[in-house]
């Protein structure tokens, strides 16, 4: 089983590239953001609980995350791996995930980061706000989410670098060119 974490700031293209990776390698694509948006749309108890937090651009609590992730992973059979998009986002989540995998005798296979600068990110997110109307894509919330990324999520790079699991790919260019670079990186580790 291959456990890929696709890493990068909001708007770096994780969602788009995860779908392509999942297709190419028969991986299950798990996006915690998509799971939450779906729960909110369906007004489930979980959706109602997290709605405000997400609209403000803050992070949902770590305790909920590992629960949601492990449940989501259990739903898949006959896949060759997982591509995680938007998880882990804190050190606690990364540690919880390590425990979850080690209980199965598994380990994170690779952390692949999409390297996109902040100026490009803000530009892309504002465009996405126009196109998709995501409630957390307003300028104020974008700034908040970037701040959350730099303070809480970016430190994970060091965590995975120390274990020799981290690689990054330049994330500006055509979608297909970036996919090819990601595929090559993954193939080296299969
Ligand atoms: P995303 O689509 O990955 O940008 O996620 C949208 C929002 O969902 C984030 O801004 C958070 O509020 C919440 N969220 C998604 N994944 C996580 C996570 N791993 N930890 C905490 N909150 C999350």
Bound molecules: adenosine monophosphate
Question: Cα distance, first to last residue?
Answer: 9 Å
Major sheet summary line? 5 strands, parallel
Secondary structure class reads alpha/beta
Number of helices: 9
Number of domains: 1
The CATH architecture term is 3-Layer(aba) Sandwich
Reading side by side through the largest sheet, how are the strands ordered? 2-3-1-4-5
The helix content, as a percent range, equals 55-70%
CATH superfamily annotation: P-loop containing nucleotide triphosphate hydrolases
The percentage of residues in β strands lies in: 5-15%
Shape: globular
CATH topology assignment: Rossmann fold
Mean pLDDT, rounded to whole units?
Answer: 96
Beta strand count: 5
Radius of gyration: 16 Å
User: Element order, helices and strands?
Assistant: EHEHHHEHEHHHEH
CATH class: Alpha Beta
User: Uncertain regions: pLDDT < 50 for 5+ in a row?
Assistant: none
Q: Could you explain how this protein is built, in words?
A:
- The protein is α/β, with parallel strands linked by helices and 190 residues long.
- It has a single domain (2-184), classed as P-loop containing nucleotide triphosphate hydrolases (Rossmann fold), CATH 3.40.50.
- It has nine helices and five strands, in the order E-H-E-H-H-H-E-H-E-H-H-H-E-H.
- It has a five-stranded parallel sheet with strand order 2-3-1-4-5, sandwiched between helices.
- The longest helix is centred in the middle third of the chain and has 15 residues, at 118-132.
- The structure holds adenosine monophosphate.
